[in-house]
Amino acid sequence: MPSPSARILACHNDPVATQAARLAPSYRTLPLYRMDAGTYDRLVAAGAMEGLGVELREGLLVGRGRVGLDSIRRLDTEAYNRMVQTGALEGEPVELLDGLLVEMSPQGADHYLAIVRLTRHLAAARAWLGVQGPLEIKPGSEPEPDLALIEGEPSPSQLPRAALLTVEVAVTSHKKDRGPKVEMYARAGVPTYWLVDVPGRAVEVRTDPGPAGYGRCEVYGVGATVPSPAEGVTDLDVAWLFDGLGG
Questions:
Q1: Does domain 4-23+105-242 have CATH number 3.90.1570.10?
Q2: pTM of this prediction?
Q3: What is the mean pLDDT of residues 121-138?
Q4: What is the SS3 assignment for the chain?
């Protein structure tokens, strides 16, 4: 049986104390998505750029006539959704975080297998399970968590704006998943956020969301079980989740 002593009562970073420091320079620390000219031209032709006052410079959307990284145009979810609806971003590895177009990491074998196992584990939930789908968090974020439990069936005309649980699997994306996404999911009122740290072979469980982030964070290593996050889901055996990963 897993031992309760494998639970560590602290995350690698204090999400509340360091949140402001992480978000302030987000345009410098996040892997910004760089758009090619063909994609930009398709967005312009479809009218998605109308009223934004932007131009494409070195793959980035910047305010017309402005210079420097501070000139990067931050988008709200309405502008981003217009861009998505044109189809020009189909297949592009991009999500909207803190108003910025951010590149998503490609999936390796460890990342994929962790998602498959977590999907199997969470599929018994009474809630609806979404896999790598968008969560609209106004005013300027639309992350795509690896998994999310949604209370009701998503609407065909409106993206989900709330979730009971969000899960991010981190192989190389720890900075993003421990940084901006903490504040975003907390601001959306997501009660529980799991960060699955594949290299560290641990699951970071954040709860008690508030304006500055999550008030509580616990780390569950191999030998522990993560408490059920929702009705119908059993406790998660961390050793089972990471068996064979990272080899």
A1: yes
A2: 0.89
A3: 96
A4: CCCHHHEECCCCCCCCCCHHHHHCCHHHHCCECCCCHHHHHHHHHCCCCCCCCEEEECCEEEECCCCCHHHECCCCHHHHHHHHHCCCCCCCCEEEECCEEEECCCCCHHHHHHHHHHHHHHCCCCCEEEECCCCCECCCEECCCCEEEECCCCECCECCCCCCEEEEEECCCHHHHHCHHHHHHHHCCCCEEEEEECCCCEEEEEEEEECCEEEEEEEEECCCEECCCCCCCCCEEHHHHHCCCCC
